[in-house]
Amino acid sequence: MKLQFATITTLLLMQLATLHAANLTNLRCENRKNPLGIDVQKPRLSWIMVDSFEEATVRNQKQTAYQILVASSAELLKQNQGDCWDSGKVASDQSISVRYTTMPP
Predict the structure, then answer these.
(1) Would residue 86 count as lying in a domain?
(2) Where is 59: in which H helix or E strand?
(3) 3-class DSSP state for residue 40?
(4) Domains in the chain: how many in total?
(5) Is residue 7 situated within a structural domain?
(6) Residue 39, Ramachandran bin (φ over 0: left; ψ between -120 and 50: alpha; else beta)
(7) Residue 56 has what pLDDT?
(8) What's the whole-model pTM score?
(9) CA distance linking residue 38 with residue 35, whole number of Å
(10) Is residue 58 part of a domain?
(11) How confident is the model at residue 38, as a pLDDT?
(12) Average pLDDT for consecutive 10-residue bins of the chain (105 residues)?
């Protein structure tokens, strides 16, 4: 279970990094970079927006929404498909401690 969740978490963080509106850095799960295993059922995810040209924190811009996809494979994420979880578009500026949830059965 821990290995599977670590794989899912890694894929989720990869998806966060590929958002089109901004580049993201400092991707975290339970305040850890690239965790190998998390024993929390609803871990907290965090990220920081950066300027794509200078890799500096973006100024005078703000996040207005996010979408998190979790998939069982990188191939599904490349197709923008989350078979484990798709948060849908969430109108929010929250980028710290966003809770992972699971899709209903």
Answers:
(1) yes
(2) none
(3) coil
(4) 1
(5) yes
(6) alpha
(7) 52
(8) 0.67
(9) 7
(10) yes
(11) 83
(12) 47 48 81 86 88 57 83 87 88 91 62
